[in-house]
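Backbone-to-sequence.
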């Protein structure tokens, strides 16, 4: 994932052909996370369980968080179903937040989430793309 984050940072310096190649790489990354999601599965004994849903398309997500003794996120997992955008977003976000504090997770923005995707998902898919982040923020308000 760090390779993709590094490439995204320098995307403005690429020509049109290189941008098309990069978009293709990001799309492959999204599909890879969709087909082989990281941190997928139910977590027993989670400290926080939060359900999120995109009512406009039916995407569904359950996020599980477990805190470590130091206050950072020790374990995270998710379950759900939906489109490639929503489910790959949950996979990418759970990778990113491991070890973070609540404050660091609250500080994550829609722009951070968009950077994880690396491509413009378009306004019609924005709710799908932000489902994991919105669910995380809702979970963090519980405790």
């Amino acid at each position: 994932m760090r390779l993709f984050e590094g490439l995204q940072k320098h995307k403005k310096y690429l020509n049109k052909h290189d941008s098309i190649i990069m978009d293709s790489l990001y799309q492959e990354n999204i599909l890879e996370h969709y087909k082989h999601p990281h941190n997928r599965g139910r977590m027993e004994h989670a400290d926080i369980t939060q359900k999120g849903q995109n009512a406009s398309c039916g995407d569904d997500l359950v996020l599980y968080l477990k805190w470590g003794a130091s206050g950072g996120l020790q374990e995270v997992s998710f379950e759900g179903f939906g489109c490639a955008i929503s489910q790959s977003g949950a996979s990418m976000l759970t990778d990113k937040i491991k070890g973070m504090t609540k404050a660091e997770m609250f500080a994550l923005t829609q722009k951070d989430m968009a950077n994880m995707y690396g491509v413009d998902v378009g306004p019609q898919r924005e709710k799908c793309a932000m489902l994991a982040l919105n669910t995380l923020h809702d979970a963090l308000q519980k405790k």
